[in-house]
Automatic annotation (TrEMBL):
GO terms for molecular function: phosphoglycolate phosphatase activity. It comes from Oceanococcus atlanticus. InterPro entries: HAD-like_hydrolase_sf, HAD-like_sf, HAD-SF_hydro_IA, HAD_sf. This is Hydrolase. Gene3D superfamilies: HAD superfamily/HAD-like (3.40.50.1000). The lineage of its organism: Bacteria, Pseudomonadati, Pseudomonadota, Gammaproteobacteria, Chromatiales. It comes from the Bacteria. GO terms for biological process: DNA repair.
């Protein structure tokens, strides 16, 4: 894997949060199991019936900033989504090998920034459970720019505001749509994660970029 990345041309490492640094098992469990059960119960719906009713909302907003907006879902579903997430917060954890990779990047002297589509309240919850702030120079939510990472124009404004040279950056994410947005936005090197959720099997490679099961499979070259 290290041979697929040109570390001589990487000054900044940009990482997604859920499914890259943190286990996506929490998020998948919450949205596919915990939330439907909690939303369906007072409405007399079995979990599978509730999921069937919610799915059109999920599909319709996928890839948009609203899909990631907890305020939107709280209003639409008439539930406190942040409080509901707190009920299963013990599932929030680092993915295997992630912390070692973060330490390697820091030791190499490169900049290390978290770039997530997560709502600021979701980011705060994750940070309260895992000390991600100890590794990163900055934790950045795309909500601050009003556009998701799937939007190529997000990367232009993010790079300008955070003084990042995208032509000398590596971005790692588990989403094909996000990685395509990053490439279109000018990020020179990207890498896809194949095992974002420890509760499910690894996926097949997607897109024409390097892939790894997890961050622990990437060897960081020193300067």
């Amino acid at each position: 894997m290290s041979n697929a990345l040109d570390w001589a041309r990487i000054d900044t490492v940009l990482l997604d949060m859920d499914g890259t640094v943190l286990d996506l098992a929490f998020d998948n469990y919450f949205w596919l199991t915990h939330l439907p059960a909690a939303w369906g119960k007072p409405r007399g719906l079995a979990p599978d019936q509730a999921m069937q009713a919610l799915m059109p909302h999920f599909i319709g907003l996928r890839g948009s900033l609203l899909w990631y907006c907890l305020d939107h879902w709280s209003e639409l579903l008439e539930m406190d989504i942040v409080a509901l997430k707190q009920e299963c917060r013990d599932m929030i954890r680092f993915l295997p090998g992630a912390q070692d990779f973060l330490q390697q990047v820091r030791a190499s002297g490169r900049r290390l920034l978290l770039v997530t589509n997560a709502h600021p309240d979701a980011l705060a919850l994750k940070q309260s459970q895992c000390p991600i702030h100890e590794y990163f120079e900055g934790l950045h939510s795309s909500h601050s720019w009003g556009r998701p990472k799937e939007d190529a124009s997000f990367w232009t404004d993010f790079a300008q505001d955070c003084d990042v040279d995208l032509s000398r950056s590596l971005f790692v994410d588990d989403s094909e749509a996000v990685l395509r947005g990053a490439v279109a936005g000018g990020v020179s090197q990207v890498c896809g994660i194949l095992a974002p959720d420890t509760s499910t099997p690894a996926r097949q490679p997607f897109g024409d970029w390097p892939h790894v099961h997890g961050l622990g499979d990437i060897s960081v070259s020193t300067r």
